[in-house]
Design a protein that fits this description.
CATH class: Alpha Beta
Helix content: 40-55%
Structural class: alpha/beta
Shape: globular
Strand content: 5-15%
Distance between the termini: 16 Å
Strand order of the largest sheet: 1-2-3-4-5
CATH superfamily: Alpha/Beta hydrolase fold, catalytic domain
CATH topology: Rossmann fold
Amino acid sequence: MWMLLHGFTGSPESWSAALERAELVPEPLRPILAGHGPAWRDVGVGTFLEEVRRLSALASSMDAPRFIAGYSLGARLALGMLAENPELFEAALLIGVHPGLDGEQARRERRELDAARARLLRADGLEAFVSAWEQQPLFDSQRLLPEHLRAVQRRVRSSHDAEGLARSLESLGLGEMPSYRDAFRSMRVPVTLMTGSLDAKFRDVALDLSERHAHVRALVVQEAGHNLLLESSGEVADAMRAVERERRA
């Protein structure tokens, strides 16, 4: 059984296109992450490690064999789950994952950036924030996508609450995440790091980690950017099926 974790400003719906092709059985567990959705206050927003533990508790009730996949923020949380609870899963697919910042200076700078984003959410509202968020160079490749795909993503992003997303940035942002680079050494489950060829920063991270660790594989999708759930959902579906086949062979 799979657990699928969406990215920041995403939702469980973000996985729908990939799941239509993957046809996974049983139906994956797709929790909504802390700070997301109109009912985010029902869950609350704790620290990064508290969210890792909340999700791990959900995963512990899943049928075995268990697999986990995450995109961006979801991939970082999935990596935390693998590091903190190495016995939970048989294999992992991490899309556009960052293993964590090294050094307090880098973490401080990222906290300041996320604090500024949280201020924008609170001062100017969700629509202004989403417009600014979509202008990041990280998402340049998405400008070539059909309008209907971008409209679906904009609708999902606009379904959230500004305060919830601000709390997510402050509590689950990269500056609040422990560095898990060294944790790859102690992991024994196979990990696939999936990136787009146009997403140079994250592609290079994945390639470097795959060269350092025998159980880590880099999978690069050509002519795609950061959000493979949106840009290359078919390739994501193929990757999930491949993870299952390899683990059950």
